[in-house]
Amino acid sequence: MTVRGSGETSLPPMAECVVIGGGVIGVSCAFRLAEAGVDVLLLERDGLGEGSTAKAAGGIRSSFTSRVNVELGLRGLAAYSAFSRDFGVEIDFRRDGYLYLLTDPADVTAIGHCAELQREYGVRSHLLDPAEAKRVLPLLETDGILAALWSPDDAKATPDAVVQGYARAARACGAELRTGVEVIGIERDGTVLTGVRTSAGFVRTGAVVCAAGAWSGRVGELAGLDLPVRPFRRQVVFTGPVRGLPESLPLTIELPSAFYFHREGAGLAMSVCEDDGVPGFDTHYEAGEWLPRLAEVAGRRIPAVLDADIRTAWAGLYEVTPDRNQIVGESVLLSRFLYATGFSGHGFQMGPAAGELIRDLYLGRPTAVDIAELDVRRFGNADTAPAEHNIV
After folding, report:
1. DSSP assignment of 300-367
2. How far apart are CA 56 and CA 37, in angstroms?
3. How far, in Å, CA of 283 to CA of 315, rounded?
4. Using one digit for the tens of pLDDT, what is the confidence trace for 112-143?
5. Cβ contact 348:392 at 8 Å
6. What is the crossing angle of helices 105-120 and 67-81, to 10°?
Protein backbone atom coordinates (compact mmCIF):
# COMPACT_ATOMS: atom_id res chain seq x y z
CA MET A 1 0.00 0.00 0.00
CA THR A 2 1.36 3.41 -0.91
CA VAL A 3 1.33 5.91 1.92
CA ARG A 4 0.30 9.27 0.43
CA GLY A 5 2.85 11.99 0.84
CA SER A 6 5.44 9.93 2.70
CA GLY A 7 7.42 8.56 -0.22
CA GLU A 8 7.41 5.14 1.49
CA THR A 9 5.49 1.95 0.72
CA SER A 10 5.29 0.46 4.21
CA LEU A 11 5.53 1.42 7.84
CA PRO A 12 8.42 0.38 10.05
CA PRO A 13 7.48 -2.77 12.01
CA MET A 14 8.23 -1.10 15.32
CA ALA A 15 8.91 2.28 16.89
CA GLU A 16 9.87 3.35 20.36
CA CYS A 17 7.09 5.97 20.39
CA VAL A 18 4.19 6.66 18.01
CA VAL A 19 2.77 10.19 17.83
CA ILE A 20 -0.79 10.32 16.51
CA GLY A 21 -1.59 13.62 14.80
CA GLY A 22 0.37 15.85 12.44
CA GLY A 23 -0.78 19.30 13.50
CA VAL A 24 1.38 21.76 15.39
CA ILE A 25 1.08 19.79 18.65
CA GLY A 26 2.06 16.51 17.02
CA VAL A 27 5.05 17.80 15.06
CA SER A 28 6.29 19.75 18.09
CA CYS A 29 6.12 16.57 20.18
CA ALA A 30 7.83 14.54 17.45
CA PHE A 31 10.65 17.05 17.20
CA ARG A 32 11.30 17.33 20.92
CA LEU A 33 11.20 13.56 21.41
CA ALA A 34 13.48 12.88 18.44
CA GLU A 35 15.84 15.65 19.55
CA ALA A 36 16.12 13.80 22.87
CA GLY A 37 17.12 10.58 21.08
CA VAL A 38 13.73 8.81 21.03
CA ASP A 39 12.86 6.64 18.00
CA VAL A 40 9.69 8.44 16.84
CA LEU A 41 7.07 7.58 14.24
CA LEU A 42 4.41 10.24 13.62
CA LEU A 43 1.20 9.18 11.88
CA GLU A 44 -1.21 11.62 10.25
CA ARG A 45 -4.38 10.58 8.41
CA ASP A 46 -4.28 13.56 6.04
CA GLY A 47 -1.41 15.97 5.36
CA LEU A 48 0.70 17.69 7.98
CA GLY A 49 -1.13 20.65 9.48
CA GLU A 50 -4.29 20.08 7.41
CA GLY A 51 -6.62 19.70 10.41
CA SER A 52 -7.35 22.41 12.95
CA THR A 53 -3.89 23.94 12.57
CA ALA A 54 -4.66 24.91 8.97
CA LYS A 55 -7.62 26.96 10.20
CA ALA A 56 -5.88 28.56 13.20
CA ALA A 57 -5.80 32.35 13.48
CA GLY A 58 -2.12 32.21 14.41
CA GLY A 59 -2.45 34.22 17.61
CA ILE A 60 0.18 33.81 20.35
CA ARG A 61 -0.59 35.26 23.77
CA SER A 62 0.07 35.11 27.48
CA SER A 63 -3.18 36.88 28.36
CA PHE A 64 -4.88 34.09 30.31
CA THR A 65 -6.53 33.93 33.71
CA SER A 66 -4.66 30.93 35.17
CA ARG A 67 -0.99 30.60 36.03
CA VAL A 68 -0.45 27.43 34.03
CA ASN A 69 -1.89 29.01 30.87
CA VAL A 70 0.10 32.22 31.30
CA GLU A 71 3.29 30.17 31.66
CA LEU A 72 2.51 28.00 28.63
CA GLY A 73 1.63 31.09 26.60
CA LEU A 74 4.88 32.80 27.55
CA ARG A 75 6.86 29.74 26.45
CA GLY A 76 5.06 29.90 23.10
CA LEU A 77 5.88 33.58 22.67
CA ALA A 78 9.55 32.95 23.48
CA ALA A 79 9.80 29.99 21.11
CA TYR A 80 8.07 31.68 18.19
CA SER A 81 10.06 34.91 18.58
CA ALA A 82 13.22 32.85 17.99
CA PHE A 83 11.72 30.34 15.53
CA SER A 84 13.23 31.70 12.32
CA ARG A 85 16.68 31.73 13.95
CA ASP A 86 16.36 28.29 15.55
CA PHE A 87 14.63 26.45 12.69
CA GLY A 88 15.60 28.45 9.61
CA VAL A 89 11.96 29.01 8.64
CA GLU A 90 10.29 32.41 8.34
CA ILE A 91 6.95 32.35 10.20
CA ASP A 92 6.01 36.06 9.88
CA PHE A 93 6.17 36.60 13.65
CA ARG A 94 4.71 40.02 14.55
CA ARG A 95 4.14 41.54 17.98
CA ASP A 96 1.04 43.56 17.13
CA GLY A 97 -0.52 42.80 20.52
CA TYR A 98 -3.91 41.60 21.71
CA LEU A 99 -6.74 43.98 22.59
CA TYR A 100 -9.72 42.70 24.61
CA LEU A 101 -12.87 44.82 24.54
CA LEU A 102 -14.95 44.38 27.69
CA THR A 103 -18.70 45.07 27.62
CA ASP A 104 -19.78 43.21 30.78
CA PRO A 105 -18.87 44.47 34.29
CA ALA A 106 -18.10 40.91 35.39
CA ASP A 107 -15.48 40.65 32.66
CA VAL A 108 -13.82 43.87 33.77
CA THR A 109 -13.18 42.34 37.21
CA ALA A 110 -11.98 38.99 35.84
CA ILE A 111 -9.74 40.51 33.17
CA GLY A 112 -8.38 43.01 35.67
CA HIS A 113 -7.16 40.03 37.70
CA CYS A 114 -5.71 38.60 34.47
CA ALA A 115 -3.66 41.77 33.98
CA GLU A 116 -2.40 41.61 37.57
CA LEU A 117 -1.39 37.99 37.11
CA GLN A 118 0.45 38.73 33.88
CA ARG A 119 2.37 41.58 35.46
CA GLU A 120 3.67 39.13 38.09
CA TYR A 121 5.43 37.45 35.15
CA GLY A 122 6.80 40.73 33.80
CA VAL A 123 4.20 41.05 31.05
CA ARG A 124 3.25 44.60 30.01
CA SER A 125 -0.48 44.05 30.26
CA HIS A 126 -2.88 46.66 31.60
CA LEU A 127 -6.46 47.91 31.48
CA LEU A 128 -7.40 50.86 29.26
CA ASP A 129 -10.42 53.11 29.29
CA PRO A 130 -12.44 53.32 26.02
CA ALA A 131 -10.62 56.45 24.81
CA GLU A 132 -7.25 54.81 25.33
CA ALA A 133 -8.46 51.71 23.49
CA LYS A 134 -9.43 53.88 20.51
CA ARG A 135 -5.93 55.36 20.45
CA VAL A 136 -4.56 51.81 20.14
CA LEU A 137 -7.11 51.01 17.41
CA PRO A 138 -8.45 54.16 15.68
CA LEU A 139 -11.00 52.19 13.60
CA LEU A 140 -12.73 51.11 16.81
CA GLU A 141 -16.23 52.25 17.74
CA THR A 142 -16.30 52.34 21.56
CA ASP A 143 -20.05 52.48 22.33
CA GLY A 144 -20.80 49.92 25.04
CA ILE A 145 -17.17 49.27 25.88
CA LEU A 146 -16.47 49.60 29.61
CA ALA A 147 -12.73 48.92 29.49
CA ALA A 148 -10.13 47.07 27.44
CA LEU A 149 -7.16 44.86 28.23
CA TRP A 150 -4.08 45.75 26.18
CA SER A 151 -1.29 43.16 25.91
CA PRO A 152 1.22 44.79 23.55
CA ASP A 153 3.75 41.93 23.57
CA ASP A 154 1.30 39.28 22.31
CA ALA A 155 1.83 38.27 18.72
CA LYS A 156 0.79 36.43 15.58
CA ALA A 157 2.55 34.02 13.21
CA THR A 158 1.81 31.67 10.31
CA PRO A 159 0.75 28.19 11.52
CA ASP A 160 1.61 26.29 8.33
CA ALA A 161 5.16 27.61 8.33
CA VAL A 162 5.57 26.52 11.95
CA VAL A 163 4.35 23.00 11.14
CA GLN A 164 6.81 22.72 8.27
CA GLY A 165 9.64 24.02 10.43
CA TYR A 166 8.99 21.51 13.20
CA ALA A 167 8.50 18.69 10.68
CA ARG A 168 11.81 19.38 8.95
CA ALA A 169 13.62 19.57 12.28
CA ALA A 170 12.00 16.34 13.50
CA ARG A 171 13.10 14.49 10.36
CA ALA A 172 16.62 15.89 10.74
CA CYS A 173 16.70 14.35 14.22
CA GLY A 174 15.66 10.96 12.86
CA ALA A 175 11.88 10.99 13.30
CA GLU A 176 9.71 9.37 10.62
CA LEU A 177 6.62 11.40 9.69
CA ARG A 178 4.05 9.49 7.65
CA THR A 179 0.99 11.10 6.11
CA GLY A 180 -2.06 9.43 4.62
CA VAL A 181 -2.02 6.81 7.38
CA GLU A 182 -5.05 6.39 9.64
CA VAL A 183 -4.80 4.81 13.08
CA ILE A 184 -7.62 2.27 13.38
CA GLY A 185 -6.71 0.46 16.58
CA ILE A 186 -4.49 0.54 19.65
CA GLU A 187 -3.42 -2.83 21.00
CA ARG A 188 -2.91 -3.50 24.68
CA ASP A 189 -2.16 -6.44 26.93
CA GLY A 190 -4.03 -5.51 30.09
CA THR A 191 -2.55 -2.19 31.17
CA VAL A 192 0.45 -2.51 28.84
CA LEU A 193 0.39 -0.79 25.45
CA THR A 194 1.74 -3.12 22.76
CA GLY A 195 1.11 -1.57 19.35
CA VAL A 196 -0.88 0.49 16.88
CA ARG A 197 -2.98 -0.83 14.01
CA THR A 198 -3.16 1.46 11.00
CA SER A 199 -4.52 1.57 7.47
CA ALA A 200 -0.97 0.74 6.34
CA GLY A 201 -0.25 -2.11 8.76
CA PHE A 202 0.68 -2.85 12.37
CA VAL A 203 3.42 -1.06 14.29
CA ARG A 204 4.74 -2.56 17.50
CA THR A 205 5.33 0.12 20.11
CA GLY A 206 5.34 0.58 23.84
CA ALA A 207 4.37 4.25 23.84
CA VAL A 208 1.78 6.48 22.14
CA VAL A 209 1.30 10.25 22.21
CA CYS A 210 -2.24 11.34 21.39
CA ALA A 211 -1.98 14.73 19.67
CA ALA A 212 -5.00 14.25 17.42
CA GLY A 213 -6.78 17.50 18.27
CA ALA A 214 -10.52 17.38 17.66
CA TRP A 215 -10.25 13.66 16.90
CA SER A 216 -8.58 12.80 20.23
CA GLY A 217 -11.77 11.47 21.79
CA ARG A 218 -11.87 8.79 19.09
CA VAL A 219 -8.20 7.93 19.63
CA GLY A 220 -8.90 7.58 23.34
CA GLU A 221 -11.74 5.19 22.57
CA LEU A 222 -9.38 3.03 20.50
CA ALA A 223 -7.23 2.68 23.61
CA GLY A 224 -10.20 2.09 25.90
CA LEU A 225 -9.75 5.50 27.56
CA ASP A 226 -11.96 8.54 28.00
CA LEU A 227 -10.41 11.73 26.66
CA PRO A 228 -13.25 14.28 26.97
CA VAL A 229 -12.40 16.26 23.85
CA ARG A 230 -15.28 17.23 21.61
CA PRO A 231 -15.21 18.98 18.19
CA PHE A 232 -17.12 22.22 17.67
CA ARG A 233 -17.29 24.20 14.46
CA ARG A 234 -15.82 27.69 14.16
CA GLN A 235 -16.41 29.82 11.04
CA VAL A 236 -14.29 32.69 9.74
CA VAL A 237 -14.80 35.21 6.93
CA PHE A 238 -12.07 37.12 5.11
CA THR A 239 -12.84 40.55 3.70
CA GLY A 240 -11.50 42.54 0.82
CA PRO A 241 -9.54 45.76 1.49
CA VAL A 242 -10.75 47.81 4.47
CA ARG A 243 -10.39 51.57 4.17
CA GLY A 244 -8.07 53.11 6.75
CA LEU A 245 -6.69 49.80 7.98
CA PRO A 246 -3.42 50.47 9.84
CA GLU A 247 -0.31 48.43 9.08
CA SER A 248 -0.10 47.26 12.68
CA LEU A 249 -3.44 45.99 13.97
CA PRO A 250 -3.84 44.10 17.25
CA LEU A 251 -5.73 40.83 17.30
CA THR A 252 -8.91 42.21 18.84
CA ILE A 253 -11.52 40.29 20.80
CA GLU A 254 -14.81 41.49 22.24
CA LEU A 255 -16.03 39.76 25.39
CA PRO A 256 -18.37 38.10 26.14
CA SER A 257 -19.46 37.74 22.48
CA ALA A 258 -16.02 36.29 21.50
CA PHE A 259 -16.19 38.34 18.27
CA TYR A 260 -12.63 38.72 17.02
CA PHE A 261 -10.76 40.14 14.08
CA HIS A 262 -7.20 40.53 12.88
CA ARG A 263 -5.47 41.84 9.81
CA GLU A 264 -5.28 39.50 6.83
CA GLY A 265 -3.56 41.20 3.91
CA ALA A 266 -5.37 44.44 3.13
CA GLY A 267 -8.53 43.21 4.86
CA LEU A 268 -9.69 41.46 8.00
CA ALA A 269 -10.34 37.94 9.17
CA MET A 270 -13.41 37.94 11.44
CA SER A 271 -15.39 35.47 13.46
CA VAL A 272 -17.93 35.23 16.25
CA CYS A 273 -18.75 32.22 18.39
CA GLU A 274 -21.34 29.75 17.19
CA ASP A 275 -23.73 27.97 19.52
CA ASP A 276 -21.79 25.10 21.10
CA GLY A 277 -24.90 23.00 21.65
CA VAL A 278 -24.06 19.96 19.54
CA PRO A 279 -20.53 18.69 18.85
CA GLY A 280 -19.66 17.35 15.42
CA PHE A 281 -17.06 17.14 12.68
CA ASP A 282 -18.97 19.20 10.09
CA THR A 283 -16.62 21.78 8.54
CA HIS A 284 -18.96 23.10 5.85
CA TYR A 285 -19.31 26.86 5.88
CA GLU A 286 -22.92 27.92 6.39
CA ALA A 287 -23.81 31.60 6.42
CA GLY A 288 -27.32 30.96 7.77
CA GLU A 289 -28.08 33.00 10.89
CA TRP A 290 -24.39 33.21 11.75
CA LEU A 291 -23.31 35.71 9.08
CA PRO A 292 -25.96 38.35 9.93
CA ARG A 293 -24.94 38.07 13.60
CA LEU A 294 -21.29 38.53 12.64
CA ALA A 295 -22.17 41.49 10.40
CA GLU A 296 -24.15 43.12 13.21
CA VAL A 297 -21.36 42.99 15.78
CA ALA A 298 -18.65 43.81 13.22
CA GLY A 299 -20.54 46.83 11.93
CA ARG A 300 -21.15 48.04 15.46
CA ARG A 301 -17.51 47.66 16.48
CA ILE A 302 -15.55 48.48 13.28
CA PRO A 303 -17.96 50.30 10.92
CA ALA A 304 -15.35 50.65 8.15
CA VAL A 305 -15.60 46.92 7.47
CA LEU A 306 -19.16 47.34 6.14
CA ASP A 307 -17.72 48.85 2.96
CA ALA A 308 -15.59 45.74 2.31
CA ASP A 309 -16.79 42.67 0.47
CA ILE A 310 -16.43 39.13 1.80
CA ARG A 311 -13.57 37.60 -0.17
CA THR A 312 -13.79 34.05 1.16
CA ALA A 313 -14.91 32.04 4.19
CA TRP A 314 -14.25 28.67 5.80
CA ALA A 315 -15.10 26.54 8.81
CA GLY A 316 -12.75 24.61 11.08
CA LEU A 317 -12.88 22.72 14.36
CA TYR A 318 -12.11 23.63 17.95
CA GLU A 319 -11.06 20.74 20.23
CA VAL A 320 -12.98 21.58 23.38
CA THR A 321 -12.83 20.12 26.89
CA PRO A 322 -15.54 20.62 29.56
CA ASP A 323 -13.55 23.36 31.33
CA ARG A 324 -11.93 24.84 28.20
CA ASN A 325 -8.49 23.90 29.50
CA GLN A 326 -6.21 21.48 27.68
CA ILE A 327 -5.44 17.99 28.95
CA VAL A 328 -1.75 17.12 29.10
CA GLY A 329 -0.31 14.14 30.93
CA GLU A 330 0.16 10.38 30.99
CA SER A 331 -2.58 7.83 31.59
CA VAL A 332 -2.61 5.90 34.84
CA LEU A 333 -4.82 3.23 33.23
CA LEU A 334 -2.64 2.35 30.24
CA SER A 335 1.13 2.45 30.49
CA ARG A 336 2.94 4.94 28.28
CA PHE A 337 -0.19 6.47 26.77
CA LEU A 338 0.53 10.20 26.80
CA TYR A 339 -1.79 12.97 25.65
CA ALA A 340 -1.56 16.64 24.68
CA THR A 341 -4.93 17.73 23.39
CA GLY A 342 -8.14 19.64 24.10
CA PHE A 343 -6.50 23.05 23.77
CA SER A 344 -9.90 24.65 23.07
CA GLY A 345 -8.62 27.10 20.47
CA HIS A 346 -5.18 27.69 22.03
CA GLY A 347 -3.24 24.82 20.47
CA PHE A 348 -1.10 26.85 18.10
CA GLN A 349 0.23 29.21 20.75
CA MET A 350 0.85 26.35 23.18
CA GLY A 351 2.41 24.03 20.59
CA PRO A 352 6.03 24.74 21.57
CA ALA A 353 5.34 24.13 25.27
CA ALA A 354 3.35 20.96 24.50
CA GLY A 355 6.34 19.37 22.78
CA GLU A 356 8.59 20.16 25.74
CA LEU A 357 6.05 18.83 28.26
CA ILE A 358 5.50 15.54 26.42
CA ARG A 359 9.26 15.06 26.04
CA ASP A 360 9.80 15.53 29.75
CA LEU A 361 6.88 13.29 30.70
CA TYR A 362 8.17 10.58 28.38
CA LEU A 363 11.67 10.81 29.82
CA GLY A 364 10.34 10.82 33.38
CA ARG A 365 11.85 14.14 34.35
CA PRO A 366 10.26 17.24 35.94
CA THR A 367 8.36 19.48 33.55
CA ALA A 368 9.33 23.13 33.23
CA VAL A 369 5.74 24.11 34.08
CA ASP A 370 3.63 22.48 36.80
CA ILE A 371 0.84 20.82 34.82
CA ALA A 372 -0.78 18.75 37.57
CA GLU A 373 -4.08 20.58 37.05
CA LEU A 374 -4.12 19.60 33.35
CA ASP A 375 -4.32 15.86 34.08
CA VAL A 376 -7.42 14.21 32.60
CA ARG A 377 -8.38 12.85 36.03
CA ARG A 378 -9.51 16.32 37.07
CA PHE A 379 -12.85 15.70 35.39
CA GLY A 380 -13.61 12.99 37.93
CA ASN A 381 -12.94 15.29 40.88
CA ALA A 382 -15.25 17.76 42.55
CA ASP A 383 -12.41 20.24 43.16
CA THR A 384 -11.34 20.86 39.59
CA ALA A 385 -9.54 24.07 38.72
CA PRO A 386 -11.69 26.97 37.47
CA ALA A 387 -12.39 27.10 33.75
CA GLU A 388 -10.22 29.46 31.70
CA HIS A 389 -12.15 32.76 31.54
CA ASN A 390 -10.27 34.35 28.65
CA ILE A 391 -11.64 32.23 25.80
CA VAL A 392 -11.62 33.23 22.13
Report:
1. HH-GGGGGSPEEEEEEEEEEE-TTS--EEEE-SSSBTEEEEE--TT-HHHHHHHHHHHHHHHHHT---
2. 30
3. 5
4. 888 999 999 999 999 999 999 999 999 999 99
5. no
6. 60
